[in-house]
Amino acid sequence: MAVDPLIELRDVNKYYGELHVLRDISLTVGKGEVVVVIGPSGSGKSTLCRTVNRLETIQSGSILLDGRPLPEEGRALARLRAEVGMVFQSFNLFAHKTVLQNVSLAQTKVRRRKRDDADRRSLELLERVGLAAHAAKYPAQLSGGQQQRVAIARALAMEPKALLFDEPTSALDPEMINEVLEVMRQLARDGMTMVVVTHEMGFARSAANRVVFMADGRVVEDRAPEEFFTAPRSERAKDFLSKIL
Ligand code: ADP
Ligand code: MG
């Protein structure tokens, strides 16, 4: 696809001590693209996400955001973490802060917005994820699906260039999965660049531009969803799909 690259990994290698977790990963995510990453447990999917906003360092290769190498430290690194938002399996909300405060906090601290501006923006975003009515509640008063939607609103509040989702629905009860996926589908339709690690194959089929299949730290397949699901090329992918579908 002839789109501008936003995230580019070139020959990325990462080790945890002796363990070679990312092996010669080359991967490009274009602006507005939705890339779903799937693969067996331990294949390096979370590590891949974490290297992209530099929660982990790499030993060789390069990662570019919008054509520039990732910053190493200081304010530029804080800005990177805002520009590449991350949504985790565990929602990581502040328990002793309200929903509104959770969404506003980083805006005032990192983006240096005034409190009023931050709150106004937070309410708009909570509206967008269907939670404006819950702004004054505390996370524990919300369902898991609602908490994850707050976490998405919080990431959006930083006006990210891209969002990384690491198994955003894996900790949710089945009846809550769809409300979170629906918010993610809407973001995709609005043109957000997204990398999504998920086991939700329905989401991959309906929302992804590409599916990246990882095994043993490598990208084994990187293809359009319909091709990947109907005719996986590698034995690893065939085996994986036969277990989950
Ligand atoms: P996935 O998300 O695909 O399940 P991970 O990226 O979490 O895979 O892990 C890849 C490999 O790296 C696994 O073997 C895992 O045990 C190992 N690993 C992950 N995080 C660490 C860490 N902080 N220290 C050492 N090994 C790790
Ligand atoms: Mg993982």
TrEMBL record:
Keyword Membrane part of the UniProt annotation: yes
UniProt xrefs under PROSITE patterns: ABC_TRANSPORTER_1 (PS00211), ABC_TRANSPORTER_2 (PS50893)
ABC transporter domain residues: 7-241
Compartments reported by the entry: Cell membrane
Xref: CDD domains: ABC_HisP_GlnQ
Protein name: Amino acid ABC transporter ATP-binding protein
SMART domains linked to this entry: AAA
Main location: membrane
UniProt family annotation: Belongs to the ABC transporter superfamily.
Alphabetized Gene3D superfamilies for the sequence: P-loop containing nucleotide triphosphate hydrolases
GO MF entries: ATP binding
UniProt topology in membrane: Peripheral membrane protein
Keyword annotations from UniProtKB, A to Z: Amino-acid transport, ATP-binding, Cell membrane, Membrane, Nucleotide-binding, Transport
